[in-house]
Amino acid sequence: MQWLILLKINFAFRRLWLSQCISSIGDWFNHVAMINMVLQLTGTGLSVAFIIACRTIPLLLAGPWLSAWIDRLDKKRIMVAADVLRALFVLGYLFIREPDDLWIAYSLSGCLALGTVLFDAARLAYMPQIVAAEKLVTVNSIYSFTFGVTIAFGALAGGWIVSLLGNNSAFLVNAATFIVSGLLISGITGKSVPNKQQAGKWVGTELAATWRWLRGNPAVLLLLATDASLAISSGIMNVLLGIFALQVFSAGSLGLGVFYLALGLGFIGGSLAIMVVKARYKSVKASWTIMSWALMGIGAALAGFSQSFSLFAAAGILVVTYIFQGIFGVLYNTLLMLFVPADIRGKVFALDKIKLAVIMSLSALGAGYMLEVISPRVLAAAIGCFIILCGLIWTAVFKLHRLWLTAEEGEEQHVNVSV
């Protein structure tokens, strides 16, 4: 199997993958515990939405400036530093005891989001330096599969641990996973290749040059816009999953764990589906067609989720939803890795992650306010219809302007491979 062969022969990728596995499990422990803690202290979904929305402040203030340094510095050191800082931030949740302490959670949420953006952007920019271009689809499908496994078992185990031992136990586990992740990455031999030509430039100049490149590549801009529309639904679903599990179905933290188990199984299914049909999408046009159908499939499934009559019926629909989202994510990351040149790849991935986090946070905050006036089922149905509409619009724009031609031209300038 290609996955096992790649993990066996590529030492750097293997350690990077293991670090991501371990820290991702801890992340889901944290996520379940944080939602459970906030709902216990406040009893309202608006507080959960506000916690998520607080991630935007440090991202907007410091994210763009820090993104330029990803291409200037050793990406391994950036990832290790991000792990150490996130471990310290997570320990701050231990000091939250009552509703008046929630300002700590709001602050830490933003700090953790910034650390995660830096880590993920450095990892994605580093990947083409340690893996051959023709293996990027395989690499991204491995990460999607792993992401699904860590969600499925991390969130389920997190719900179980929280229900038995309390929220603080999950926060301690999360801090420990960040330390282990940093140790694994620090053991990777060799250095990433920083862009020394940018060392003396002002950060604003670099960001302006990156924006000019994006403006000259409409296919990449459309790719980013498509993902932005999906980020809106993801932000709202981050709130709705907790509301459906804890309030609509009254299933408690274990119910939330069941939902994330379904989410994980969906990503696992999506990554396997990509590998099965890999031989059929050798062109940008074919890849985009698959992504468009996947986006519309997500919308249809979310509309079905809104009308689910039980916890397990809802969980089954979530599996289908995230199979489509797993397919979309693998192709999205692969195309972005292939189309963006190495000297700005770190900035583009960082800005993409900032875009994703900001949109998800704002949409989560909007969901919290909307839930004060409409039911969770109505909101879930509305977001499903919105995603279907976006899929139709983006597909029409791509085909009308024949953007696969400009994308393929850009790809040939950087790597001579097909998706």
TrEMBL record:
One of its GO terms (cellular component) is plasma membrane. InterPro entries: Bacilysin_exporter_BacE_put, MFS, MFS_trans_sf. One of its GO terms (molecular function) is transmembrane transporter activity. Keywords: Cell membrane, Membrane, Transmembrane, Transmembrane helix, Transport. The keyword Kinase does not apply. It holds the Pfam family MFS_1. It is a multi-pass membrane protein. The chain crosses the membrane at residues 46-66, 78-96, 102-121, 142-163, 169-188, 220-246, 258-277, 286-305, 311-342, 354-371, 377-398. It is found in: Cell membrane. It comes from the Bacteria. This is Major facilitator superfamily MFS_1.
